Amino acid sequence: MKTKNPIILIILFALGWTFMYADRNILSPVMKVIGEEWDLSKAELGLMSTVFFISYAAMQIPAGILADRFGRVKVLVAGYILFGIGTILSGFAPGFIVFLAIRAVTGLGEGTYYGPVYGISSNAISKKFRGISSALINSGMAIGISLGFIGSSYITFTLGKNWQFTFYLFGIATIIVAIVIGLFVKDDRADVRAQKSAVQAEPVNMKALFTRNHILTYILIFCSLYGFFGMLTWLPYYLQTARGVAGSQTGIISSLVPWASIPGAILFGYWSDRVKNKKPLILLLAVLGAICQFVVPYAENYSLMIAGLIVYGLVGKLALDPILISFVADNTPSHMYARAFSMFNFAGMLSSIFAPYITGYFADVTGKMEYGFYLSGVLLLIGGILFLFVKEGDSTANASRAAQAAVVE
């Protein structure tokens, strides 16, 4: 039975994020194993994630446009099934080049999820609950990261299965989730008709996605995600090679970040729903996240490093995201939600193209992985400074006026 019940939507979309992030992160704990099997450099290991995120980022804007025109659920489910199939096929790859090609296709499938999900939820859920609802949906990311890290390391290092087994298992589960979402989530037909009626005005309407507030938000999410994906990709490897942590333990330690992010995201999402001016909260999280990016590699004390990871989980990307999503919704006409969120995610995911490879390249050149973390901290500080120039006010009214002006023109 199809539904627009907010609670069911939150649960299903959180489940969707769970397997999105689980499938992404089953790779990180076994990168050392794959590198030894295929004789890869650190830069080549980073390229495995970079190729995935290139296609993922490239799909964001087309997916948002298609979803707003033809139905968000249809686009979402089709892409999700493709992503599940790609995950399974990744386990069958006979070598590095074929693996890269399959990961690129998998990224295209995942690229249809973000814009439609937040387009549907932003229309179905009251504005006063946007922050907390986005945080609850995003909690699936945290669960998925932990599931991917722990599942991959446990299956490979504790159970002694080959690294490919995890890809088969998670890929099958992903296809099942896609079917469940397709069965229970419905498109609002009236909303779809309204979206189609706006097609003629689209070239001008797109201006509404490039206001000062939008652009500065895109920059901040780029800087935030750079550090996040650099850490997700390399943290298990860093713990094994630089800190001497056993492979079977890296999944648990790396999962401290997503575990801590769940209460952090819910707390700050709830807070953001109750303040008119979100800018101070966003700036606070950006600065604290940057500090943690410096603390984790710099701290020689093991306990301090662990504390840095936990605090980063509380205040980092997963806590910042729901507030920025709410901020984008407040500044965007409702019929352009899928495109706006796709543009927002595209800007952020551009960083994921560079972060894994650049971090690996620095490690190859300098012999140390710490410099990649330091660069992440610097970028997040820059993004926070630029966000100071955002204009906070009656965002919804501003978005409506922008849309009306675009149609009139």
UniProtKB/TrEMBL annotation:
The keyword Membrane applies. It comes from the Bacteria. Residues 9-395 form the Major facilitator superfamily (MFS) profile domain. One of its GO terms (cellular component) is plasma membrane. It holds the Pfam family MFS_1. Keywords: Cell membrane, Membrane, Transmembrane, Transmembrane helix, Transport. It is a multi-pass membrane protein. It is found in: Cell membrane. GO terms for molecular function: transmembrane transporter activity. The chain crosses the membrane at residues 6-22, 43-65, 77-102, 135-159, 165-185, 215-239, 251-269, 281-299, 305-328, 340-359, 371-390. The keyword Cell membrane applies. PANTHER family: CHLORAMPHENICOL EFFLUX PUMP RV0191, PURINE EFFLUX PUMP PBUE. This is MFS transporter.
